[in-house]
Design brief:
Largest sheet: 4 strands, antiparallel
Shape: globular
Mean pLDDT: 94
Order of helices and strands: HHHHHHEEHEE
CATH class: Alpha Beta
Number of strands: 4
Radius of gyration: 16 Å
CATH topology: H-NOX domain
Low-confidence stretches: none
Helix content: 40-55%
Structural class: alpha+beta
Number of domains: 1
Oligomer: single chain
CATH architecture: Alpha-Beta Complex
Distance between the termini: 33 Å
CATH superfamily: H-NOX domain
Length: 203
Amino acid sequence: MTNNQTKFSSKLLQDFARIIANEIGEKNLPVVLEKSRLPSEWANSDNLATLGEQAAAEAYAGLQQAIRAYYGRGARGILQRIGGKFWESLLENAPFKDKAQSKIMRGMPETMRRKAVLDMLVRLLGAKAGEMSVHTLDLNLLLVDNISPTTYNQQDNEPICHLTHGLIRAAIYWATSQDALIEETECQATGATTCEFRIIFGE
């Protein structure tokens, strides 16, 4: 789906590209891109530094598309694992304020930690007000992504935001030391207006 509001940080894109290269191999990444007829320059994170926010979103979506095309059914697990690594990178490079808050968060009751860590994930991804949000559904949570750079120029019959799924799972586990059931119930790639993730605890 093409969303003119979609954007992504070139700095985060560089970090993301480095994680992909580490996960699937620096020599293999150009081959993966070539299969989808995407720019081989995306394989080198240094080439991504000067991209504008919309071009960065295109590359962010394109890199994920290339992995889906190359690895087929195995892409889901690969992208979720990359999402976990991306969360670690976001946390490591977080601003001082968020690092301080992450320490305070560990002392909160578990039910409060769940939403607090997803709110922090939204901030670390650079989302502004109205672009991404986290909502409470009784004991569960709903993350709504209105801009979804993963789906930029993408169309599919099924939800494709496996990377975001991995980010959410890793963030929840970091905060609570527990897994949650995560389901993408709406995806812009399938024609929906938003990407929505239901995060279920203890069912």
